Structures are given as C-alpha cells and as structure tokens.
Q: What sequence folds into this?
C-alpha cells in the first residue's frame, strides 16, 4: 500500500517526534493513503510543502488498532489521545479529525456540545484517512519511495 506524509521537507527517514500538542492518535508519525489529502495538509500554511511517499507492508505481529469509520469508540479514543492519555498500539488507522472535526471533538471534550450534537455535525464532512506509527517496529513497515514539492494549485 502506498502512503503519503505531509511536511515542510522531504522525510526519507521517518521518526516519531514529541510535539507540543497531542494529535488524534497521540504522538506518532502520520501518513494517509489519500494523496489529495496529503497535498492539502502539506500546503495548508503557505501554499507549498512536500509530500513523501512510502511503501507500507503491514506486519501482523504488531499491535494495530483500526477504525473503519467514525464511531463512538473512535471518538472516545481521539478525546483520550488529545487529552494526553497514551496508548500501547504500534499503529493506529482510521478517519482523521480534520480542523473542523477537531473543533467538534474539542467542544465535545470540553462538554460544550453533546455526543449527539457531535455526530450531527461530523456527518457533514468528507471522508479522510490517517495511519499513525507509534514505535520503531511500526516505522520499519515503511520504505521510502520518493518525495516531491507540492503546491495548493495541484
């Protein structure tokens, strides 16, 4: 399977970086199988960026959590991760809480909206995909293919 990583540089050697803010599936190296989504994320700040392309070969010996769609379990998992609760999965895959969805997730986590209101709002967004790698063994499933600069005109 081909995966794409968005960045401000080509990433030949993926690594897990601890950052200031927790992400959907906690700290990890994030990719997507949707090239147009990768381009949108790479160019979101100043209209240009880079995407790196990898060959991903799943390893069934890893501890993998997969969400096929936005579900109650997915929502609770994202809220926990965004609040800083770690997990023990090597790889987590599922829909992405994009900027709009993230605002709904945050409102739900802050108890500003109900669970029912979250689902009503979330249904209005287009499908997304993310897969995050949380261990060295997980990163070993990726083989760098190439990288290129992209613009928001693509």
A:
């Amino acid at each position: 399977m081909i995966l794409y990583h968005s960045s401000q540089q080509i990433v030949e050697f993926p690594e897990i970086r601890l950052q200031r803010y927790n992400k959907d599936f906690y700290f990890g190296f994030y990719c997507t199988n949707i090239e147009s989504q990768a381009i949108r994320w790479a160019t979101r700040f100043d209209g240009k960026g880079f995407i790196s392309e990898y060959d991903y070969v799943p390893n069934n010996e890893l501890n993998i959590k997969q969400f096929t769609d936005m579900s109650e379990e997915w929502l609770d998992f994202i809220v926990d991760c965004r609040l800083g609760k770690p997990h023990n999965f090597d790889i987590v895959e599922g829909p992405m809480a994009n900027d709009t969805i993230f605002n709904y997730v945050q409102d739900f986590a802050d108890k500003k909206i109900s669970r029912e209101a979250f689902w009503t709002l979330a249904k209005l967004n287009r499908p997304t995909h993310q897969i995050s790698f949380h261990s060295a063994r997980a990163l070993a499933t990726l083989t760098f293919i190439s990288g290129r600069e992209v613009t928001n005109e693509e």
User: Anything to note?
Assistant: The beta strands are 2-7, 29-31, 48-56, 64-66, 91-94, 130-133, 142-151.
